[in-house]
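#onboarding

Welcome to the new folks! Below is a worked example of what a typical request in this channel looks like: someone posts a single protein sequence, and someone else replies with the predicted structure as tokens. Don't worry about understanding the tokens yet, we'll cover that in week two.

Example request:
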Amino acid sequence: MDTEARPVTVRRVEAPEPGLVPCLVTLLQDSVHGGASVGFLAPVTVEAAQRQWAGVFDQLAGNMRLWVAESGARVVGSVQLELCGKENGRHRAEVQKLFVHSALRGRGIGSHLLQVVEAYAAGHGRTLLVLDTLRGSFAEAMYRRLGWQFVGYIPGYAGKPDGELEATAVFYKQIRPV
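Example response:
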């Protein structure tokens, strides 16, 4: 991947875009093979990654939201937001699967994706966001830096890409609706 500093734009994907799938597959594989615990064990096959993105696209008409970060024609990051559909939970949402290509981490792309998600949530009456991430990960440090409140660790919650069980760190953030 070309790692030159290029402008990164973030856009919401509101309907299935089959042409986007190969880029998202590559992003998912890069994330897992780089150590991210996002529901997959390494190696991630193209077929498994395609099924993942097909499932996300199927949910876009419901409570799932998806954003991609692009640099030129390349997808360099993505994030999902699942709006709680329960009557007593319509004020909250869960941030899921924040990915940034390994060659571009540390350049603010993840932070930008989170800012976009938070703004969207606030604009749609969501006042509480939750998420979890692998203990000790780069993402854990980023969430702390961005003002997310650490709740605690759940031991042995998820398998790292190599299958070893690891704790997950649980976070929340209260936001003001606009």
